[in-house]
Design goal:
2 helices, globular
């Protein structure tokens, strides 16, 4: 009887060590992929042209390159304590934006990426929240391009 009582008391102690470790936040390695911009401030991105969807690719050195609506951009991702994210040393091509909606999208995306954002990565959805805007990204390949109607 004493053996069973001792076994019953010690078993929960041993099982506590078997629980998976819960991590707060995420690692920079989880950012290393191609991301497609799907929403701004909670509203879906609906672009008929160009065929290239705005987004960014982050490599192992946290270098970023992408497309913001009219132009290609590049820079360096900086991640700091407290889940903060921004793109530094950002440069881009200088193609003219003929469509007003694309020009607005490009300006908003470029300015937002260069400011400090609170970053969250949950259920494979990357959310960058600045004082002005919320940019929502999903991994490339999980977003189906909308077919023209």
């Amino acid at each position: 009887m004493k053996k069973w009582l001792l076994f019953g008391l010690l078993t929960p102690i041993f099982l506590i060590g078997c629980e998976p470790e819960v991590k707060a936040g995420f690692s920079a390695q989880q950012l290393q992929q191609s991301w497609v911009l799907t929403k701004i401030d909670g509203k879906d991105i609906n672009i008929e042209e160009p065929i290239t969807i705005p987004g960014m690719a982050i490599d192992a050195d946290l270098k970023v390159s992408g497309f913001s609506g009219c132009n290609q951009f590049f820079g360096q991702v900086e991640v700091s304590e407290g889940n903060r994210f921004r793109v530094t040393a950002m440069g881009s091509t200088k193609m003219a934006c003929i469509q007003d909606d694309l020009a607005e999208l490009e300006s908003l995306m470029s300015k937002s990426l260069q400011k400090w954002n609170n970053v969250a990565l949950e259920n494979n959805i990357l959310t960058l929240t600045s004082e002005q805007h919320i940019l929502t990204f999903m991994p490339q390949g999980t977003v189906e391009p909308e077919s023209p109607q």
